[in-house]
Design goal:
This protein has 224 residues and is of the alpha+beta class. The chain contains eight helices and five strands; from the N terminus they run E-H-H-H-H-E-E-E-E-H-H-H-H. A hairpin with a 5-residue loop joins strand 3 and strand 4.
Length: 224
């Protein structure tokens, strides 16, 4: 049995008779898929992680919390810069902290393959389709991440890399929050002052060991 996207929407919206176990199963999978799709398209990485299955889902759940904190600090920095356009400085971290921005997933069909439910999906900006599984994990229905998302998490299967990424996000949160506070207070008023202060904060946190180090005189000015 296969369920088209149109039928899936009807099943999710109206529910199905408990007497028809097969249809009820499809409705359950459709609801799980819709929850994942809604979280993805809203850019809610915490909710996406809750609906994501398998090892990559577990990795995403570990990364999502520090990522959200870094995103909040980045948003604060953007707000401070918007209030003082004369500075003319752009936050270079904003895009990287919104990895789901613009994601639009189309669910073409849900089907049963043996004992497994699968969904045929595609990104709306691409005609290419892929099949992802819908799995029951610890009593919750979760969805395999589409390949475009899963591939970015593959390096983090190494526990040391995962811990390092979490630490980097925590350090970045402190850097961005400190820079935002300096701009909010009027301590940094020009593009050069903001740039030098960012370099100083990065050097002090050891966030990027290979990043350019501010010169002694510049550092003193940035700290003043």
């Amino acid at each position: 049995m296969r369920v088209s996207a149109a039928m899936m929407a009807l099943m999710v919206g109206a529910g199905v008779s408990s007497a028809d176990a097969d249809d009820a199963n499809f409705a359950t999978q459709a609801a799980a898929m819709q929850a994942f799709k809604s979280a993805l398209e809203s850019g809610d990485i915490k909710q996406v992680s809750q609906h994501a299955a398998g090892e990559t889902g577990a990795i995403l759940r570990r990364v999502s919390e520090p990522l959200l904190k870094a995103k909040a600090a980045s948003d604060r920095l953007d707000k401070a810069l918007a209030a003082k356009p004369e500075i003319g400085w752009h936050n270079p971290f904003a895009a990287g902290l919104a990895p789901l921005a613009g994601s639009q997933l189309e669910v073409v069909e849900i089907a049963r393959e043996g004992n497994l439910f699968v969904a045929r999906v595609r990104y709306r900006q691409s005609p290419q389709e892929e099949t992802i599984a819908i799995r029951n994990e610890e009593g919750a229905w979760r969805v395999d991440l589409p390949s475009e998302l899963a591939k970015d998490l593959q390096p983090l299967r190494d526990p040391e890399r995962l811990d390092k990424r979490r630490k980097q996000l925590e350090q970045l949160t402190e850097v961005l929050a400190a820079l935002a506070a300096d701009i909010e207070s009027g301590k940094r008023k020009t593009k050069d002052e903001v740039t030098l202060r960012l370099l100083e904060l990065i050097a002090d946190s050891n966030l990027f060991p290979s990043a350019p180090q501010p010169k002694a005189g510049d550092k003193a000015n940035a700290s003043g």
